[in-house]
């Protein structure tokens, strides 16, 4: 996809995601800044912030866990190269600690695919597995939402015992909910 296609898809996804009741009523959303060919998230981040929502973004730690910082606009992002991994856009302000995610009403998760059960396939680093485990330990149950292209919703992805289903996937063609989540 061209940069223009990714940007337009991001705008469509933002409109669809913003129609979700979970995001309409959220006070705090843990999100991420898309990279590479991932569906764009910038339009969604800016619209959430304009609505007065507190937006938390991850910062990758050396052990692949995630710290969090607040998104206050495009100027609050820094491009960070993590060794041999891809460069990420992370919050440049004060770090709030890995437990900051427990304050989120909604967690937007990146992914490579989601299956018919709501199981998410990540990139394999385990960062979001740690986030989901942290939410469980804290006893909080934010809504879990993945933003994907239509072709990334598949029949089945591999899942392990610790994997948890998401509540919804948002694609350019619509929203699919998973009641078992």
From TrEMBL:
| Catalyzed reactions | (6S)-5-formyl-5,6,7,8-tetrahydrofolate + ATP = (6R)-5,10-methenyltetrahydrofolate + ADP + phosphate
GO biological process, any: folic acid-containing compound biosynthetic process
InterPro entries, per the entry: FTHF_cligase, FTHF_cligase-like_sf, NagB/RpiA_transferase-like
Q: EC no.?
A: 6.3.3.2
Would the keyword Nucleotide-binding be found if you checked this record's keyword annotation?
A: yes
Question: Which residues are noted in the entry as ATP-binding?
Answer: 120-128
Keywords for the protein's UniProt record, in alphabetical order:
ATP-binding, Ligase, Magnesium, Metal-binding, Nucleotide-binding
Asked if the keyword Transport belongs to this entry, the reply reads: no
| Gene Ontology terms, MF aspect | 5-formyltetrahydrofolate cyclo-ligase activity; ATP binding; metal ion binding
Q: Which residues bind substrate?
A: 33, 38
Main EC class the enzyme belongs to: ligase
Q: Which cofactor does it need?
A: Mg(2+)
By sequence similarity, the record places it as follows: Belongs to the 5-formyltetrahydrofolate cyclo-ligase family.
Q: What is this protein called?
A: 5-formyltetrahydrofolate cyclo-ligase
Q: What is the lineage of its organism?
A: Bacteria, Bacillati, Actinomycetota, Actinomycetes, Kitasatosporales
């Amino acid at each position: 996809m061209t940069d223009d296609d990714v940007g337009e898809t991001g705008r469509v996804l933002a409109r669809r995601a913003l129609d979700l009741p979970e995001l309409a009523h959220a006070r705090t959303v843990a999100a991420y800044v898309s990279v590479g060919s991932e569906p764009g998230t910038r339009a969604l981040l800016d619209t959430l912030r304009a609505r007065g929502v507190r937006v938390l973004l991850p910062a990758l730690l050396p052990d692949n866990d995630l710290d969090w910082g607040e998104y206050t606009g495009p100027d609050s992002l820094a491009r960070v190269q993590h060794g041999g991994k891809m460069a990420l856009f992370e919050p440049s302000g004060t770090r709030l600690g890995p437990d900051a995610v427990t304050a989120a009403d909604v967690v937007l998760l990146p992914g490579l695919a989601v299956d018919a059960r709501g199981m998410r396939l990540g990139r394999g680093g385990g960062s979001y597995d740690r986030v989901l485990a942290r939410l469980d330990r804290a006893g909080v149950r934010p809504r879990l939402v993945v933003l994907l292209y239509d072709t990334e919703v598949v029949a089945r992805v591999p899942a392990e015992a610790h994997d948890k289903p998401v509540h919804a996937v948002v694609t350019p063609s619509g929203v699919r909910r998973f009641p078992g989540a």
